[in-house]
Amino acid sequence: MARTKQQFVCQSCGSVSPRWQGRCDSCGAWNTLIEETVRPAKTGGPPPVRGGRVIELVGLAGATDEAPRMLTGLGELDRVTGGGLVPAATLLVGGDPGIGKSTLLLQAAGAMARRGDPVVYVSGEEAIAQIRLRAQRLQVMDAPVQLAAETNVENILTTLAAGPPPGLAIIDSIQTLWSGEVESAPGTVTQVRAAAQAMIRWAKSTGTAVVFVGHVTKDGQIAGPRVVEHMVDAVLYFEGDGGHRFRILRAVKNRFGPTDEIGVFEMTGAGLQEVANPSELFLGERNAATPGTAVFAGMEGSRPLLVEIQALVAPTTLGTARRTVVGWDSGRLAMVLAVLEAHCGVRMGDCDVYLNVAGGLRIVEPAADLAVAAALVSSRLGKPLPADTVYFGEISLSGSLRPVAQSAARLREATKLGFDRAATPAGRDDEAGANRRTFDRLTDLVAAIGALPA
Ligand code: TYD
Ligand code: MG
Questions:
Q1: Distance (Å) of CA 6 to CA 44, 335, 384, 442
Q2: Quick check: 373 and 340 in contact, CB under 8 A?
Q3: What is the CATH number of domain 75-276?
Q4: Residue 402 burial (CB count, 10 A)
Q5: 213-231 pLDDT, tens per residue?
Q6: Topology of 281-450 in CATH?
Q7: pLDDT band for position 118 (50/70/90)?
Q8: What are the domain boundaries of the chain?
Q9: Is 349 in the pocket of ligand 1 (CB under 6 A)?
Q10: Which atom of ligand 1 lies at the shortest distance from residue 213's CA?
């Protein structure tokens, strides 16, 4: 019998080391190397080429078929995947424990099964009774979903191969799967990779779409199966925090669609509700009369989204001023503060600064600069901003303002929600409406806020 070999595999990036080390050489993570046993390959070196056949090489031009789509029936999920699931494609849905991944997928399974696509839901985390209870709560008990509680890949694949292949198979979660072919503990990178590989191979050969659930670690990586991200066709993150009802589904990789779309859901007592008009939701509890709040007209993919930016600037009581940011980049905040100090004469050095994006949303667009600056200045000067104005625009280090893309869509959304005025940089594509006030430099905006009544 071939001797087995011990090796140490980084659970974060999957790189292999012959010795144990405290820190992974490849990704720099600490304490991630775990001992795993491998069966050596039967022969050394690359396998000999035997029994291969000549494959046909073709040119780039030629007939292509648009990938057919299976709609799940959850509009927001279909939007994020780029118009529904693609047969034979594999999808990873990541997110913190308890955020609602199992809920989302059970709802999708129910909706799809009702539309007539056979769906198999395999849970390695919950017992059948638990899933049935959840199905009752979500009112999908009547949907013809085939359920199993199983963690062994060979059992799952044998079961799936026994009947006609379903349209969709859901595996909740990839971390619980294990294969008898591999001698590592369940949940290790080697196991997760082997299990995912087996499922993906099966998906490609049968045309079934497979959705994996993956847990995310505290620092925002899909635990262990980082390696799975490279193997699947699309990766979606389900985010939000426990204190808010809103959940955002975001595509971070998609071989069949855009990656900048988001889907917005609200967690209710009866499962996830789709939110068709997120702006209304994010502005829902707005109190415009206080200084320090500005409405940002943002874009998430093809969809405009209005959110409230809240700032609190207060004299510091400690030696060093605090800067606390929720929902935005702290480096970007430091930059906006520096520009306000250097070019606009707004003193911030002796103040604590707190910045929050309302509703638990996370904004990545540089277009939010102007709204952040407006909120900061409004709080610093104690002057409430006009309630009917939205802000967007990028700030450069010189203190000048740069126009951002898709301003027409942003303005349309603002008007729709009753914001009649906008403060923006002067743009090229200007169909500048009468109610749009343009600024070339940040100082001009600061001066305008300074002229407002307190
Ligand atoms: P779950 O889907 O189990 O999370 P995950 O699979 O990502 O770990 O969701 C669990 C949370 O969602 C739980 O705290 C309860 C809440 N929830 C509701 O608020 N309403 C519902 O209808 C359901 C099914 C769950
Ligand atoms: Mg779950």
A1: 17, 49, 65, 61
A2: yes
A3: 3.40.50.300
A4: 15
A5: 988 765 555 555 567 888 9
A6: Ribosomal Protein S5; domain 2 (3.30.230)
A7: very high
A8: 5-38, 75-276, 281-450
A9: no
A10: 6
